[in-house]
Predict the 3D structure of the following.
Amino acid sequence: MIISLNKRYVFVHIHKCAGTSIEVALAKMLRHNDIVLGSTKSGEKYQEFFKRTIGLNKHSTALEARDFLGETLYGKFYKFAFVRHPIDRLHSLYSYALKLAHDAEMSDDERRNFDAHGRWPDRPPFRYKAVAAALESRSFSDFALHPLTWADAGAQPQWQSVCDASGKLIVDFVGKVESIEQDFTQVCEKLEVSVPLEVRNSSLEKKSALELSPLALSTVRERFARDFELFGY
């Protein structure tokens, strides 16, 4: 998340929607008293501090930003977010979870404990629900049906990040990852800035829906029904 008091805008960073790329690009134009949470070196460094002091984090919602700024000030800011096709976004989470697990092998003691008790190590990334679900799944379909997947923050519906409690949209612009260059250009024009956008943490997948069984596909469509409707997917 970015809250720019100087440029008067709020960027809502939704999981697996190119948020890191956008924050890194816009961070070049931030000034004193602007806040970036996560993504950049300083954003990651001070994320825990801001979480303790102002109650916001990298993936805080628009509603949480409004509560922090106050409704009057929030109304004067330009608020925007980027979303992604729900199925591709879930597949990205699956790929990312597998990568995290692959890059963090268990020690011999952790492996013995897992073999004896079936419990993943109580440390990142194994304590992340999506990672445990990915490790316990043989395919993307299994991942989409695993209960731990739906308990992970990265699998929560996107509308919850940009709407109020009644489901009303409370941001001014919602761009799409599928048209990110065009949509980000529109954001830059609104902010009166010119910054290059580089793809970071990319795990774009094609034809993700074809990897889902009928049951998994219906589950995903039911879970993300509001996302499909609100964002026109």
In short: Residues 89 and 123 are 25 Å apart (CA to CA). The longest strand covers residues 78-83. Strands lie at 2-4, 9-12, 35-36, 78-83, 173-176. The chain has a mean pLDDT of 92.
